[in-house]
Model the fold of this input.
Amino acid sequence: MRFVVDAMLGRLARWLRLLGFDTIYNRDFDDETLINIAKNEGRILLTRDETLFKRALKENIKSFLIRSFDVIEIISKLNLYIDDSLIGSRCTICNTQLVSDASSRKCPNCGKIYWYGSHWKDINRRIRAIKGDSFANT
Ligand SMILES: [Zn+2]
Done:
């Protein structure tokens, strides 16, 4: 599943990227741009905006109206399959595939470095919590 998300869903976009989902997010994109990206790239549009949601449906774009602020609840609603091997494989800032070495993963696009260690463990713990919850709800 590949996504494009609206300007109000930045936190969700970072989570989706963290879980390995190809997710386009840019605060500056207007409705027209979001619709075009979804249409041209076959992406699922996630939005908080009911007007945009209805417009997407009219244009035969797969879309979800997101009302919750709870990431766990959203992931459950989308019925996402979380692939362990893809967790942490994508830059949460710019959506680029990360390159791994012994001590870190690095984004070849924006240069952000994701160090292994306590930070990574914390992310894994939160993801396990998400997976447990989403499975319990399905
Ligand atoms: Zn990056």
